[in-house]
Amino acid sequence: MFNPFKKSYGSKELAQFDFLKGIKCFERLTNDELNLFLPLLYHRKYKKNEAVFFRNDPSQAIYLIQSGAVSLNLNRGGEFEVLTTATEAEAFGDNAFIPNTVRIYNAVVESEEADLIVLPQGNVLEIFEANQKIKAKILESLVEQYNEYTLKVFEAYKSSFGFFELKQAYSSDPS
Question: Global pTM?
Fold first, then answer.
């Protein structure tokens, strides 16, 4: 049945919805829910070797990659160990969905140029406060993603012949 009061969207908005739905944390949201985020998205161009953020910086935004590649890495003894490279239609810095967090890795542009969409944490938290259903959907997607990461850590641990103790990841005692 046709609903004359249902909001309709133009091709530009539909393309933005498709892009957002291709990113894990937004995959469960409807177009109407995604529409709340559109005015909050800021486009920014970065150049090769430009830092998006550093480890221990405050987590103030989520980044979505429209084009380019960003190295997510750790500085270990003057060397950078690449954890992964995030590319088109991927998000990084998603711990900004959690208030009062800091970055756990560095993010540095690897490609000649990267077009990123920046979603400020304050705006996300306002949407979460006003709409618990959106918050639940995004957090459910993030929990699935972190479960996949944990499984990969366990596999890496099993294949590392015990070069570290896995209990270190679960202990609140730093020693």
Answer: 0.87
Residue 4 lies in a domain: no
Q: Is 9 exposed, middle or buried (0-12, 13-18, 19+ CB in 10 A)?
A: middle
> What CA–CA distance (Å, rounded) separates 168 from 76?
18
Question: Starting at the edge strand that comes first in sequence, how are the strands of the sheet with 79-86 ordered?
Answer: 51-53, 106-109, 70-76, 79-86
| 147 is a domain residue | yes
- Render pLDDT for 137-167 as a digit per residue (tens, 0 to 9): 999 999 999 899 888 887 877 777 666 665 6
Counting every residue, how long is the chain?
175
Instruction: Supply the range of the domain harboring residue 42.
Output: 11-162
CA distances in angstroms from 140 to 19, 39, 107, 125, listed in the order given:
19, 24, 24, 16
